[in-house]
């Protein structure tokens, strides 16, 4: 899901915060092995949403341009 405005940006940031709190709670309550397994989906969602935020803010584009400049 792409972000097109401030409202969607704020919603995405809130969802990330909720997932991070859930991860923190899970980390406290579960064994390291169980956490490693159970957290994968949460972490993937957070990474995806952070990527959406980066694209909306132009961070992802800037990182790509800097990488391309280094290659040249």
Give the biggest sheet. Answer: none
Helix count from the secondary structure assignment: 4
Secondary-structure element series:
HHHH
Write down how many β-strands occur, each being a DSSP E stretch of 2 or more residues.
0
Intertermini distance: 32 Å
Protein model, in words:
This protein is an all-alpha fold and 72 residues long. The chain has helices at residues 6-29, 32-38, 40-57, 59-71. The longest helix is centred in the first third of the chain and has 24 residues, at 6-29. The N and C termini lie far apart (32 Å).
Summarize the structure.
The protein has helices spanning 6-29, 32-38, 40-57, 59-71. It is mostly helical and 72 residues long.
Keywords:
72 residues, 4 helices, 86% helix
How does the SSE layout of this entry go?
Layout: H1 6-29, H2 32-38, H3 40-57, H4 59-71
Helix pairs in contact: 1-3
């Amino acid at each position: 899901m792409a972000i097109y405005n401030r409202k969607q940006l704020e919603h995405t940031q809130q969802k990330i915060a909720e997932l991070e709190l859930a991860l923190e709670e899970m980390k406290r309550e579960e064994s390291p092995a169980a956490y490693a397994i159970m957290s994968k989906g949460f972490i993937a969602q957070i990474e995806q949403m952070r990527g959406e935020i980066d694209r909306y803010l132009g961070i992802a584009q800037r990182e790509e341009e800097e990488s391309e400049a280094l290659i040249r």
